[in-house]
Write a structure and sequence with these properties.
Number of domains: 1
Number of helices: 2
Order of helices and strands: HHEEEE
Largest sheet: 4 strands, antiparallel
Strand content: over 45%
Shape: elongated
């Protein structure tokens, strides 16, 4: 599926207030540092960026986490989250 079709310019009018908890982060965030605790008590740190955007006709927000791979000289998608308002529990 072409990801352009799933993007939206902003929140759905009926859900704007409910989605702004995460909607306030919509945009591109550079300079993120992720920390991954290890079982032995050490910590792995990675730098990267996060991109938040409206999707599904403004009914959800998707964030995409990317990690910088210096040895490859590029960013690697590392994860994504989709956040939406669930009317049945008002959350």
């Amino acid at each position: 599926m072409d990801d352009q079709r799933s993007r939206a310019d902003g929140p759905h009018p009926e859900l704007k207030e409910k989605l702004m908890l995460f909607g306030q982060f919509v945009g591109d965030w550079d300079g993120m540092e992720a920390r991954y605790p290890q079982p032995d008590g050490t910590e792995i740190k990675r730098k990267g960026e996060i991109h938040f955007g409206w999707i599904l006709d403004g009914r959800a927000i998707q964030d995409v986490w990317m990690i910088y791979k210096k040895n490859l000289r590029r960013v690697i998608p590392a994860g994504t989250t989709i956040r939406f308002y669930y009317n049945n529990i008002d959350a």
